Each structure stands twice: as structure tokens, then as C-alpha cells.
């Protein structure tokens, strides 16, 4: 469940930011991708603090929220990697696959 939430938590802000950028008349590349990437990360620190203060960090849903936030941040780092590689020659395997494999096998 947490991984599904994390993927949606990364994709939805990315797509929304990119679409709004295009609606406002800016190009999708690189402006839309930049805005979408900037909106994708979550704040694990704020989530930890709020859940800790509410004393629900040890509950199942608290753990799911924290797990989703961590996975969301990792996916956002991959998005930033893709964004930074757009200025040069974009190669899918070294830019996307290798970072994800590194995270999986960490």
C-alpha cells in the first residue's frame, strides 16, 4: 500500500505541475518538467514530527505514511536526476535504471 501511495504521490504532483505549466503557455520541456519535478518531493521531517506529536508513529497507518514519504523522496531524486540530464545527452539506462537499481540493492 505504501509504495502505491508513494508512486501516486510522486506522479500526481509531477503531472499536475507539468500540465499547469503548459496551460499557462510555457513549454513542457524544460519548464513543465522542472515545475513537476519541484512539486514531487515530500517532507519526511514534517511527517515524522507530526506523527510523533500525535503519538501515531507506531501505528500501521503511521508507518505506511513514513514509508510512502521515503519512497516518494527516492523517486523524486530519480526525477531530479532525469531533469538534470536533460541539458545534455539523455540516456535512459545510466540516468534512470542505474539509480533505481542502486536503491533497490542498497
TrEMBL record:
Principal cellular location given in the protein's record: membrane
Matching PANTHER family: NAPA-TYPE SODIUM/HYDROGEN ANTIPORTER (PTHR43562), SODIUM ION_PROTON EXCHANGER (EUROFUNG) (PTHR43562:SF3)
Membrane topology classification: Multi-pass membrane protein
Record protein name field: Cation/H+ exchanger transmembrane domain-containing protein
Keywords from the named record: Antiport, Ion transport, Membrane, Sodium, Sodium transport, Transmembrane, Transmembrane helix, Transport
UniProt organism field: Spumella elongata
InterPro entries, sorted: Cation/H_exchanger_TM, Na+/solute_symporter_sf
GO BP annotation list: proton transmembrane transport; sodium ion transport
Entry's localization field: Membrane
Molecular function in Gene Ontology: antiporter activity
A Pfam family annotated for this UniProt entry: Na_H_Exchanger
A Gene Ontology cellular-component term: membrane
Domain spans labelled Cation/H+ exchanger transmembrane: 3-91
Keyword ATP-binding assigned: no
Domain of life according to the entry: Eukaryota
Membrane-crossing residue ranges in chain numbering: 90-105
